[in-house]
Amino acid sequence: MSGNEPKNQKEIESFFTSREIEQLKTSMCDIGSRMWQRGFVDGNGGNLTIRVGNNLVLCTPTLISKGFMKPEDMCLVTMDGDQVAGEKKRTSEVLTHLGIMNRQPNASACCHAHPPTATGFAVAGTPPERFLTPEAEIFLGEIGIADFREPGSPECSDVVGELAPDHTAIFMCNHGVITWGEDIERAYWRMENIETLCINHLVARELTGGEPMPRITGKAAEKLSRIYRGFLKS
């Protein structure tokens, strides 16, 4: 709650080990494991964040497989990216997450990963076609395309963050995908959504032999777009 954030290092450490924060750390480990099991991350790739205050963000550590994280591995940073708690070093790409959170008030959590099919689309700099499935339009809408910038750099934070007000999912060209949500579960769901959409797009394109694919149109399409816009502004 506004005005109730810890103000000194002792308060920060107490906050960082509180029951509520420990539950969020456990959730991040669970989602990291799900990302790894789905093959959305390789090596030490991918990262997760949860905003836990006006100026505080919980994040995953660097150089640890997302499939084998433990709650004690998590880090706490400010909205400027300065680490204030945690024994491990924070992810090097946290600034990109903060770029989204600073520009989109509804982004309480972010998920970055390298799902193979969606990352292929990101490398090509080409989003999947629109209005193929209802779920994609409700939860993803138009996919943002962010030009390549050095991962973890302020420039990467800027090009990705600028797209956050209008996009819940962003292709980071030649890199991967980042999604945001009202909580970490929904941010991760969107990562599953976008990988499924890209697979569906490729299969449908193959089956139609490159001919125009059937799409959702008219009032049905308009309704789906209204629902999506509600996510952005709620």
Secondary structure class reads: alpha+beta
Biggest sheet character: 8 strands, mixed
Any idea what the CATH architecture is? 3-Layer(aba) Sandwich
Q: Please report the total strand number as a whole number.
A: 8
Low-confidence blocks of residues: none
CATH superfamily: Class II aldolase/adducin N-terminal domain
Strand composition percent: 5-15%
Distance between the termini: 18 Å
Order of helices and strands: HHEEEEHEHHEHEEHH
Mean pLDDT: 95
Q: What this model shows, in words?
A:
This protein has helices spanning 9-16, 19-37, 94-103, 116-124, 134-139, 154-161, 184-207, 218-233, and strands spanning 47-51, 56-59, 75-78, 83-85, 109-113, 144-146, 169-172, 176-181. The chain has one domain: L-fuculose-1-phosphate Aldolase (3-Layer(aba) Sandwich). It is of the alpha+beta class and 234 residues long. 43% of the residues lie in helices and 15% in strands. The radius of gyration is 18 Å and the shape is globular. Helix 3 packs parallel to helix 6 (154-161) and helix 4 crosses helix 7.
